[in-house]
User: What shape does this take?
Amino acid sequence: MMYVKPKKHLGQHFLKDESVCVRMVEAIPEQKDMLPVLEVGPGTGALTKYLLKRKDLETHVIELDEESVVYLKKYYEALGDRIYAMDFLKIDLEKLMGKGSFIVAGNFPYNISSQILFKVLDYKDQIPFVVGMFQREVAQRIAEKPGTKQYGIISVLIQAYYDIDYLFTVNEDVFDPPPKVKSGVIQLTRNKVLKLDCNEKLFKQVVKTSFNQRRKTIRNSVKSMLHDAVDTSAEIFSERPEQLSVEEFIQLTNLLDVSN
Assistant: This one.
């Protein structure tokens, strides 16, 4: 049996516990018509094995590690030409997967897991569903609600377009090599928001600017974005960023939008 050495610089931690893989695959809703699923960072195919058993999913995998690609081609012949030796963060997903809908899944490398989700946001109208494993703190942050220290930029930006469910925690000892932290599996389901009721580019800027100085009130954290027409006496300006819901960030964006 060919052995693939996990590579630290790629953030590889190969999953050994097949029951975790089963639970992750079961978290993907059953599809009426076959839908492509793109697994990011399959490594040696622990999750791939169970994705391939789903007759309602057409499994595609994208892997940057050349050694893992050789392994997958050897042991997962059923994938055929659906093994892509590419960098997920650098590719045009529409060119790779076409213009239709597809699911994203994976035991995501910790060092790029947040970037993977921001890439998903770029293709949110094509990606109705994501099931992924993250470092537990990151998974909790994504799923967190307003009013806590964990709630932040990624919480707001992802929750604007997806409903988030934290599914379960995974212990360190089910990986090779074991990471130094626990992992968490979350489920993202695209909500019904086709477009935010504000300037979406400005919304993103407002969220990032607010949380960059999260200990300050909104009035002070977005000071650089204020203009004469803004009434900063509005109650929202007295709040701190972690207290604002997605809807309130939309409201704030509209208050700061000079084009209104």
